[in-house]
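Predict the 3D structure for this chain.
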Amino acid sequence: MRLFSFLGLVITVAIGMYIYALQVKTLEPSAGAGSNKEEQTTVIAVRNDLISIANAERGYLASEGHYASLDELVSGNYVTIKGERPPYIYDVQTSPGSFRVTATRTTKGAPAQLWIGDDMQVQASD
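Done. Predicted structure below.
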């Protein structure tokens, strides 16, 4: 009886590890033609920067009542990100009811642009 219990436990753990491995594999950035680990790391860092700037915009809106430029966010200590993460440069466009933070690549490569708006969804162009 103990043998069947142990065997059941081993099978359950094996199935769980297989499902976990499949999920981790889908979370890894896809490797396109010409991409490498350094480029993938840069794109992930830029996405994180965009999310940080968008969160800073939300904080600024809550305290000041309007959205701010990137310079205002930096000078107000809402964010420590500067205007770039080579090869991307950042730009913040605001209107009374929304904002859009764009990262534009200054060299050849993909994605050419990444952006986030007040919907907090990071999007990318080819």
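Strands lie at 84-85, 88-95, 98-105, 113-117, 123-124.
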